[in-house]
């Protein structure tokens, strides 16, 4: 039972344009969401997060949007740069519950020069 | 801070052999997680510990898998006997209650 889903295994975007990565979840108890970025042969690293009390969080070129009614979140990268090429994982958890994060399958983003 | 340290980085073994993966957490982090990454399922949580005590092992696929955390500085994930379908990248990650997960660089396991 995949509680967090990333339906696009891969995405290709031209340098300088906007990259939009999507994530859906099924558990309405989730109230904290995170995005992780992973380069080959390395572990995932934390990128940005958002609490369910917000619908947007911005950090430089990265913005995460949360639509609770649709159980959907997205990560926007503007402008996209070659160094953004990586696998991006969406994750969710329940703040007052167990500390464990539930991850999606990941989306491989490729930025073309 | 050296981060989360996993060993070995790569492990190739034959079916039926015992495999032990090791993890040294970041000092001061009291949560430790073992994840497995596969193409089909992404990052799956296998088990996690809090203050060296296993809290949730519901993700451990079978009795062939076991994990221990004898002290705050060390954890192991053991597979015995190993099977080809266990081939994956295994990650250890640690955190404190108010910090994001910090991952190690993983162990790529290949069972032939």
Description of the molecule:
The complex is a heterodimer of chains A (113) and B (112). Chain A is an all-beta fold and 113 residues long. Chain A has strands at 4-5, 10-14, 19-25, 32-38, 45-51, 56-59, 62-67, 72-77, 86-93, 102-103, 107-112. In chain A, a hairpin with a 2-residue loop joins strand 6 and strand 7 (62-67). Chain A is globular, with a radius of gyration of 13 Å. The model of chain B has no long low-confidence stretch (mean pLDDT 94). Chain B is mainly beta and 112 residues long. Chain B has no helices and 11 strands. The interface between A and B is medium-sized, with 22 and 25 residues.
List the helices and strands and how they pair.
The complex is a heterodimer of chains A (113) and B (112).
Chain A: E1 4-5, E2 10-14, E3 19-25, E4 32-38, E5 45-51, E6 56-59, E7 62-67, E8 72-77, E9 86-93, E10 102-103, E11 107-112
Parallel strand pairs in A: 2-11
Antiparallel strand pairs in A: 1-3, 3-8, 4-5, 4-9, 6-7, 7-8, 9-10, 9-11
Chain B: E1 5-7, E2 10-13, E3 19-24, E4 31-38, E5 42-50, E6 53-56, E7 65-71, E8 74-79, E9 88-95, E10 102-103, E11 107-111
Parallel strand pairs in B: 2-11
Antiparallel strand pairs in B: 1-3, 3-8, 4-5, 4-9, 5-6, 7-8, 9-10, 9-11
């Amino acid at each position: 039972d995949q509680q967090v889903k990333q339906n696009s295994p891969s995405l290709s975007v031209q340098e300088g344009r906007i990259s939009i990565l999507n994530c859906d979840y099924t558990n309405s108890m989730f109230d904290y969401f995170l995005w992780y970025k992973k380069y080959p042969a390395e572990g995932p690293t934390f990128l940005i997060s958002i609490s369910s009390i917000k619908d947007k969080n911005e950090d430089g070129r990265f913005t995460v949007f949360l639509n609770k009614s649709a159980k959907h979140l997205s990560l926007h990268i503007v402008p996209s740069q070659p160094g953004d090429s990586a696998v991006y994982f969406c994750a969710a958890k329940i703040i007052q519950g167990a500390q464990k994060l539930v991850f999606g399958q990941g989306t491989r983003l490729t930025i073309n020069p | 801070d050296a981060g989360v340290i996993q060993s070995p980085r790569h492990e190739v073994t034959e079916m039926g052999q015992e495999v032990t993966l090791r993890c040294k957490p970041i000092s001061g982090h009291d949560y430790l997680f073992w994840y497995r990454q596969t193409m089909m399922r992404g990052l799956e949580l296998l088990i996690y510990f809090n203050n060296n005590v296993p809290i949730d092992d519901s993700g451990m696929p079978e009795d062939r898998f076991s994990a221990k955390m004898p002290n705050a500085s060390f954890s192991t994930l053991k597979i015995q006997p190993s099977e080809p379908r266990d081939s994956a990248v295994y990650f250890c990650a640690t955190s404190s209650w108010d910090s994001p997960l910090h991952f190690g660089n993983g162990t790529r396991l290949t069972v032939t």
